[in-house]
Amino acid sequence: EVGGPTLREVCAHLHEKINTFLTTSPRNEKLSCVQQQTRISLSVVHEALSRYSFDELALSFNGGKDCLVLLILFLSALHTHPHPPPAHAKIQSVYVQSSSPFPEVDSFVSTCVSTYQLSLHRYALGMKSAFEQYLRENPAVKAIFVGTRRTDPHGEFLTHFDMTDHGWPNFMRIQPVIDWHYREVWLFLRELNIPYCCLYDMGYTSLGGTTDTLPNPVLLVPGSKDQFYPAYDERVDDAQERLGRHR
């Protein structure tokens, strides 16, 4: 079909992938944990879909690994939703660009727009200003899925559903992957064979902008100055995830 698959076709394909993953006996305890995290997150997405209509929901998407997991789960859940989106609908999404974005990140985000049928609004603004402008331009949106995890800055006390803080534009933040661990994110993406941004294969473990992000020093290949193991290498866990970030 010209223009790639429809949103419904994308959702059906990902639902089949996730269903296969969840119904396959796990090879080890780590995959068993990822299956459980997946079930919990899917239940949060289904809860969101019962609270809000499709038109009231948007996704914060910056091409990073956490919001990529979230996007896949959201699309999978949409397949079994009793009120599926219209045949040629797209996922409302907002991309808050870094002030100095990596070309590789921008390129990956653009790929995702066509692969996953996103209606993406890009803003080169601060987070708060970007969401203010997005909600001004999309007044029907009441809730936004975000890929925040517990170990992120300001993630410690969040739950699955949190209204924005005082002084922020008013919307419900939905955080289905809040309790996923770093290694679980990578096990999920690799087990389901989900394409991800190429910077992760170069040793970057947390993506900001070009001025504040380097490959993670924990992943430097011994005896090398510029060769790094990939982000999914077992040397990195939650505590070391942001060691390549400089603010």
TrEMBL record:
- List, alphabetically, the SUPFAM superfamilies matched: Adenine nucleotide alpha hydrolases-like (SSF52402)
Give yes or no: UniProt keyword Nucleotide-binding: yes
**Any idea where the Phosphoadenosine phosphosulphate reductase domain is?**
57-214
**What are the GO BP annotations of this UniProt entry?**
FAD biosynthetic process
Which InterPro entries does the entry link to? PAPS_reduct_dom, Rossmann-like_a/b/a_fold
EC number(s) on record?
2.7.7.2
Catalytic activity reported: FMN + ATP + H(+) = FAD + diphosphate
Kindly state which keywords UniProt assigns to this record, in alphabetical order: ATP-binding, FAD, Flavoprotein, FMN, Nucleotide-binding, Nucleotidyltransferase, Transferase
Protein name as catalogued:
FAD synthase
Q: List the source organism.
A: Sphaerosporella brunnea
